[in-house]
Each structure stands twice: as structure tokens, then as C-alpha cells.
Design goal:
By secondary structure, this protein is mainly alpha-helical. It folds into two domains: about 375 residues, no CATH class; about 120 residues, no CATH class. Helices cover about 65% and strands about 5% of the residues. The chain has 29 helices and six strands. The chain has a four-stranded mixed β-sheet, with helices on both faces. A hairpin with a 2-residue loop joins strand 5 and strand 6. The longest helix is centred in the N-terminal third of the chain and has 31 residues.
């Protein structure tokens, strides 16, 4: 067979393999996204806040939210351009798109950086599995932050050395900060430290260069100062603080190119400032007051940290692993390396195998055992020169961003553990690539592995992709199991939720209560917030001060506004979920607020569905 015909067949087969990858990935994401409904219903809370914003109500003054305005502007733009309806089916389909896009962008960045299509596919598959829990909370701002974080990595790979490169990074920082303020803040700190590590001014030499790194180590303790008496929070502080110290020092030790100057920091700062001012101006023109904007961006998120206290998932050997990692780094940094020694390449290989194979679907293990070894990605790699516009800055920024984003775990772990470790997917894939390249270039490997003819080597990438597709489908995606689980559920079959499938008992409950509300009230309020029922019953809330955990997050004046709106309605009802309110009772006295006082003193029970009691004002049966 001629080389031309062989090449054509290989390209055709590669195209078919890529198509299969996409089909399998979309099928996996669809089955996950449309199977099940979480009882805490953040999906409904965010949909109802979007409904209020899109209806013209000012953010924070009349629409409660603990998230930034960029999230709402983003949805306003894309829903206007593409005419996406505000339904559960559309929200979950949009979640699927964000999920696939975040994985694909991170994969593209890694593949371009390593100049390896295979490792690009590896990162895509790994990221898709890693972000699976995103589908538990469709419509959450974490979809946007994951997309923006991946985009930030892609920008550092594609645009270094071009005009306004750092301005683009500053713009992304503003978008992140005005979506979730903690994620944006950690991103800004990582970017500032990455620039400092590649700066050549007088502050980049001697003991003064260590000051920003040492200052950063104190941030976890300051952030969690209220909870340091608890061992889980204290151990997590040490885990992140030492990781920040080691990664910051490693970025300085292995970043010999110091060509960046003050201009880069100023440019990124200007990008952030201009973008932030534009967002603030737009939200103020939309009717939001300055005080309410500050409360929505700063006060509401900080109130969440004060109200909830869930210790991060810490494992017994995590701190010992941290100490070993720091000791190995100290030993490696004390040696002047022309080429990285073999033991560092071996550690990179172990780190990459643990992340890409052993811990692929369990982010708490990655947080405890892979995060402390994050500095391995900064070991100069064989793929690219270690320069400020190439491999060096990319590695430093990616490493520091991954380290700082670990703080997303506080104050509420759960899905945030996956979000906090998202960028680790790229780091352990890069380490695995570096170790593999070093092994392939070694004299011993060339001696023991015979060279194959070119016509056989042409099929090697295809075989690797087919193997990856098989492993992903059967073991990581578990596509047959997800399909069987999806088909075992019952279609909810309510307005805007025709594709969503849930447990049969849950489907029956939501259909019955939605039908009752559609014919017996003009508005209702739920305790705690199960705001999805507003869309299924067609009855909107009395106002848009709605959230899942309103007994904790809404103050007394906000609750009094809800009570006043209920009193003015013609046929208001209140849904009281007994088990749900018991759960929120762990964080606050749910009986003390104006809403519950109104329910106890002025309302009577008129119906009951399972553990949900329905109340109506006594004067308006």
C-alpha cells in the first residue's frame, strides 16, 4: 500500500474515532444531566432569580442572589441571542453545553501546549468525568466559572507575546470576580504571583521576592479564622497553605526567564478595572442601588461562610503526604539542575498515573494526595522551552491557579471539591507527558524497544485513541450503567421538564402538588425554597426574594417583604416541607423569622402531600 493511500486511510479512521468520541461524550453528559433531581433545588433558586432579572426587577434590591451580576448578564445575552427558554429542560441542556465546553477548552489548551492530540483527548475525557457533579446543580454559576477558568488557561497558551495579552487575563479575572467573588479573587492572586515570578525588577531578587509568597500562605488561615478550632478546617488550612508556599517557591526557582516588567501587571490591572467598571455601570443603570450591589457581592457570600460550617474532606495520611512533598521539593530545589534528575521524572510519572488513572473520578482523593505535589508541573519539561512567553509562564500560571482555586472548597464542600480541583486535570496530564517523553528519550528505552517501520507507526495514534475511547466508555463514563439508570427512572412530564427523569415516587409527588397549586392559588412560598415548583405549577412567587436556604440567608426585613406580599395576594399558599426545615434547623432557629411567625399565627393547614404541609391565611381560605 502506498504512503498516500495509507495516510488517507489513517486520516479517515481518525475522523471516525473523533466523531465516536463526541457521540459517546454527548450521550454520557445527556444521561447524567437528565437523570435525577436534587432535593435542595439550587436549580430552581437560580432559575427564579433569573426569571426576576429577565423580567426587569433590579438585582439585589428586588432579586435575591449571592452571586455576581456577570452571571446574569451572561444569561441575558445568550438567552436573547439564541432564544433559550427558561425551563428545566433548557437549563439542563445549557448545563450540558457548558460542561462539554469547559472540558473541551481545557483539553485544547493542554493539547496545544504539549503539541499532542492524544493528551488533549486524555484531558477532555478526564475533565468530563471530573465535572460530572456539575450536573447535580444545573444553571449554577459554577458552570460559568469552570468555563472561564479553562479559557484563562487557553489564553496563556495561545496569546503570550501578543498585544493586550495581560489585559485579556485581567478581563477574565473581572468576569470571574463578578460571577463568584471568591473564585475571581483566587484567580487574581494566582495571576499576580505568576507575573511576579517572571519579573526582572529589584523586587524579584533576594529575600524580597519571597514576601508575596509568604503573605499568600496566611490567606487560608485568615479566610477560615472562625473555624480553626475544628480539626478538619485547621488541617485543610495547613494543606492549602503549605501547598501555596511550595508552589510559589517552585515557580520562582524554576522560572529563570525574568523578562516581564511592571507594564504587564499594570496592563492586567487595567483590563480588570475597565471590565469591572463596565459591569458595575450596567448593573447600576439596570436599577440596582450601590448598597445592594455591595451587599450582593460581599455581604451575602460572607454571610454564607458564617452560616454554614461543613469541614473539608480530609483523609488521615494527607498531612504526612504534605510533609513528604515539601521535603522532596526542598531537596530538589537545593540542587542546581541542568536537566531534571531521573527521580523527579519518576515522581511526575507516578503523579500523572495517580491522577489520570487511579483517582480520576474521586476529587477528594485528588485534593488530599495530588494537590501537595502540584509543584511537579513546574519542573522544566522537554516539550517546550522554559520561557516567559512559552512553557514557563504557562506552567507557573496553571500551577498557581490550581493551588489557589483549592480554597473554593470553603465554606461548602460537596460539588465545590470538583470545581476546586478542576485545573489539576491539566497538571497531572502534563506531568505524565513529561515523564513519558523523558522515558522515550532515554538510552535504556531506545535499547530495549525496537524501532518500528513507519507504516506501522502510522497506526499507533489511532490504536491509542481507540483504547482511550474503550476505557472511557466502559470504566470512566460507565455509559451502559448510566443509560440503564436513566431508563429506569420515570419522566417527570411537567411543563418545561419533559425530558427530565426522576424516581417514580418523586415524579408522582411533584405532579400532584403542581396540579393542586395550579388550581388553588395565585401565588405561593415554600419553606425551605423548592422554587422549581413555580415553573411546574405556572404560579410565580409573591416576590423575587427567593433562595433555597432563605431561613439562613434572608434577614428579617427581607422576610417581612415576603409576608407583606403574601398578605396582599388574593389566594396565597405556603408550602412547609418538614424534613427540609429540620435540615436547615441545624444552622439557625427557623421558628424565629417573620415568615414562620406569620405561618404559625395567621395561617391554617389546608392540605398535605407526603411530608409537605400546605397552609393558607386563616382570613383567606
Amino acid at each position: 500500500m502506498s504512503n498516500t493511500r495509507l495516510s488517507a486511510r489513517v486520516h479517515l479512521t481518525n475522523a471516525c474515532t473523533i466523531l465516536l468520541f463526541l457521540v459517546v461524550s454527548i450521550a454520557y453528559a445527556y444521561y447524567v444531566a437528565f437523570s435525577g433531581f436534587e432535593s435542595y433545588d439550587d436549580e430552581g433558586y437560580l432559575m427564579i432569580s433569573l426569571k426576576g432579572f429577565l423580567s426587569g426587577h433590579p438585582l439585589y434590591d428586588e432579586v435575591f442572589s449571592q452571586y455576581g451580576p456577570f452571571y446574569y448578564f451572561y444569561h441575558w445575552i445568550i438567552r436573547s441571542l439564541v432564544a433559550i427558554p427558561l425551563t428545566h429542560d433548557a437549563t439542563r441542556m445549557l448545563c450540558l453545553v457548558h460542561w462539554l465546553a469547559a472540558a473541551a477548552i481545557l483539553a485544547m489548551a493542554t493539547g496545544l501546549f504539549l503539541r499532542s492530540k492524544f493528551f488533549g483527548w486524555v484531558v477532555f475525557v478526564q475533565a468530563l468525568v471530573h465535572l460530572r457533579k456539575m450536573a447535580n446543580e444545573p444553571g449554577h454559576p459554577q458552570e460559568v466559572t469552570a468555563f472561564l477558568l479553562a479559557l484563562g488557561v487557553l489564553v496563556t497558551v495561545v496569546l503570550p507575546g501578543r498585544a493586550r495579552f495581560f489585559a485579556w487575563l485581567g478581563t477574565l479575572a473581572a468576569a470571574l470576580a463578578f460571577t463568584k467573588v471568591n473564585v475571581g479573587g483566587f484567580y487574581c492572586l494566582a495571576l499576580a504571583l505568576a507575573i511576579r515570578c517572571h519579573s526582572g525588577d529589584s523586587w524579584a531578587r533576594g529575600w524580597r521576592s519571597r514576601l508575596p509568597v509568604l503573605a499568600g500562605c496566611a490567606v487560608p488561615f485568615l479566610l477560615m479564622r472562625q473555624h480553626l478550632a475544628e480539626a478538619g478546617f485547621r488541617d485543610f488550612c495547613w494543606l492549602v497553605s503549605v501547598t501555596l508556599l511550595v508552589t510559589g517557591l517552585a515557580a520562582q526557582v524554576w522560572s529563570p526567564d525574568r523578562r516581564l516588567g511592571m507594564r504587564c501587571g499594570v496592563e492586567s490591572g487595567l483590563g480588570f478595572t475597565v471590565s469591572a467598571m463596565a459591569i458595575v455601570v450596567v448593573v447600576l443603570l439596570q436599577g440596582t442601588s450601590g448598597k445592594a450591589l455591595f451587599d450582593g457581592l460581599i455581604t451575602a457570600p460572607s454571610k454564607l461562610a458564617q452560616a454554614f460550617r461543613f469541614p473539608p474532606p480530609m483523609f488521615p495520611m494527607a498531612l504526612l503526604n504534605l510533609v513528604v512533598s515539601a521535603a522532596v521539593f526542598a531537596f530538589a530545589a537545593s540542587r542546581k539542575m541542568v536537566e531534571p534528575p531521573a527521580f523527579l521524572r519518576a515522581l511526575q510519572g507516578v503523579y500523572g498515573i495517580c491522577g489520570a488513572v487511579l483517582f480520576v473520578s474521586y476529587s477528594p482523593l485528588q485534593l488530599n494526595y495530588l494537590l501537595p505535589w502540584l509543584w511537579l508541573v513546574l519542573v522544566p519539561g522537554p516539550a517546550l522551552p522554559n520561557g516567559s512567553g512559552g512553557g514557563g509562564f504557562v506552567r507557573a500560571f496553571l500551577c498557581l491557579a490550581a493551588a489557589w482555586q483549592a480554597l473554593q472548597v470553603y465554606p461548602v464542600p460537596g460539588t465545590q471539591v470538583s470545581m476546586a480541583t478542576f485545573l489539576l486535570v491539566a497538571t497531572y496530564s502534563i506531568c505524565l507527558h513529561d515523564a513519558g517523553k523523558a522515558l522515550a528519550a532515554s538510552a535504556g528505552f531506545r535499547k530495549w524497544v525496537p524501532s518500528l517501520p513507519s507504516n506501522k507507526l502510522a497506526w499507533a495514534p489511532l490504536l491509542a485513541h481507540v483504547g482511550l475511547l474503550f476505557i472511557a466508555t466502559q470504566y470512566w463514563f460507565k455509559l451502559p450503567q448510566w443509560r440503564a439508570f436513566h431508563e429506569s427512572l420515570e419522566a417527570l412530564d411537567l411543563p418545561g421538564a419533559r425530558r427530565l427523569r426522576v424516581e417514580p415516587g418523586m415524579a408522582r409527588f411533584f405532579r400532584e402538588i403542581s396540579q393542586y397549586l395550579a388550581s388553588h392559588c395565585d401565588t405561593f412560598f415554600s419553606c425551605p425554597g423548592v422554587n422549581s415548583i413555580h415553573f411546574w405549577s405556572g404560579k410565580m412567587p409573591p416576590n423575587y426574594l427567593n433562595t433555597t436556604g432563605w431561613p439562613v440567608l434572608l434577614d428579617d426585613p427581607q422576610q417581612r417583604q415576603i409576608v407583606d406580599s403574601l398578605r396582599k395576594a388574593k389566594q396565597p399558599l405556603i408550602l412547609f416541607f418538614e424534613k427540609g426545615m429540620e435540615g436547615w434547623g441545624r444552622f439557625t432557629d427557623v421558628e424565629r423569622g417573620p415568615v414562620i411567625r406569620f405561618l404559625r399565627q395567621e395561617c391554617r393547614e389546608v392540605a398535605r402531600f407526603s411530608d409537605c404541609r400546605i397552609y393558607a391565611p386563616a382570613a383567606k381560605p
